[in-house]
């Protein structure tokens, strides 16, 4: 599936890969429409029918993920509203064991996320995820979303790496396709990003797992076979 021995760098998406995408889906599809409706005398359904097309029109761009953009567009404090449902922020299954196994294999884990810095702070404060990886890099600091080739070109200036010896793990197929075009050596798809939603169908061109327990045996065996430093 994935040849971990051929890598020295593992890039990891955050939402839907390390953290349960249920938080974000609940926020954008349920909580935000309800609060927007309250502010504008609309029912949640009316608000959802207005907001969702606006969001979808920005799909794949940096605006899609930008808290500042949506705060201005909707005249609401998006970061504050996200904090209202912050108790839904949670790890996906076996994430901590997976990150530990990467370290045992001397595979440097670095988060590459499209999450805006403001909600990113909220999520890291809730989970301590930044303490379990080498770095956390937001696409907003690079000025391009992961779906864009400009992201991968600028990433090298922020984090030196060999693309052909890197692995990208993400639940977004457009991101994985972008990573592959950029020369990232291996890509792994996540099929169960939201604990409250059905699994996604596998992509014909990418190896895929539901949860990290499917790769832990290979990583554990590889770590055991390596000579101690």
Automatic annotation (TrEMBL):
The protein's GO terms of the molecular function aspect are:
metal ion binding; phosphoglycolate phosphatase activity
Q: Does the keyword Metal-binding apply?
A: yes
Give the matching Pfam families.
Answer: Hydrolase (PF00702)
Q: Which GO terms describe its biological process?
A: DNA repair
Q: Which domain of life is it from?
A: Bacteria
Query: Can the keyword Glycosyltransferase be found in this entry's annotation?
Result: no
One Gene Ontology cellular component: cytosol
Which InterPro entries does the record cross-reference, listed alphabetically? HAD-like_hydrolase_sf, HAD-like_sf, HAD_sf
Keyword annotations: Hydrolase, Metal-binding
Listed PANTHER family: GMP_IMP NUCLEOTIDASE YRFG, PHOSPHOGLYCOLATE PHOSPHATASE
Q: By what name is this protein known? A: Putative hydrolase of the HAD superfamily
Task: Tell me the organism.
Answer: Marinobacter segnicrescens
């Amino acid at each position: 599936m994935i040849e971990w021995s051929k890598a020295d760098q593992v890039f990891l998406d955050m939402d839907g890969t390390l953290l349960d995408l249920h938080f974000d889906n609940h926020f954008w599809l349920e909580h935000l429409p309800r609060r927007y409706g309250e502010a504008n005398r609309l029912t949640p359904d009316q608000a959802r029918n207005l907001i969702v097309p606006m969001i979808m029109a920005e799909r794949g761009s940096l605006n899609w993920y930008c808290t500042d953009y949506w705060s201005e567009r909707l005249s609401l404090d998006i970061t504050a509203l996200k904090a209202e449902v912050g108790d839904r922020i949670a790890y996906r299954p076996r994430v901590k064991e997976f990150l530990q196994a990467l370290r045992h294999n001397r595979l440097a884990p670095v988060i590459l996320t499209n999450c805006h810095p403001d909600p990113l702070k909220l999520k890291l404060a809730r989970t301590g995820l930044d303490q379990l990886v080498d770095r956390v890099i937001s696409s907003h600091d690079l000025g391009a979303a992961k779906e864009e080739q400009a992201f991968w070109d600028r990433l090298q200036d922020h984090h030196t790496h060999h693309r052909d010896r890197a692995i990208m793990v993400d639940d977004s197929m457009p991101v994985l396709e972008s990573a592959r075009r950029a020369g990232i050596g291996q890509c792994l798809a996540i099929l169960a990003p939201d604990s409250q939603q059905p699994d996604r169908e596998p992509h014909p061109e990418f190896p895929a797992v539901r949860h990290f327990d499917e790769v832990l045996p290979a990583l554990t065996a590889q770590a055991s076979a390596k000579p101690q430093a």
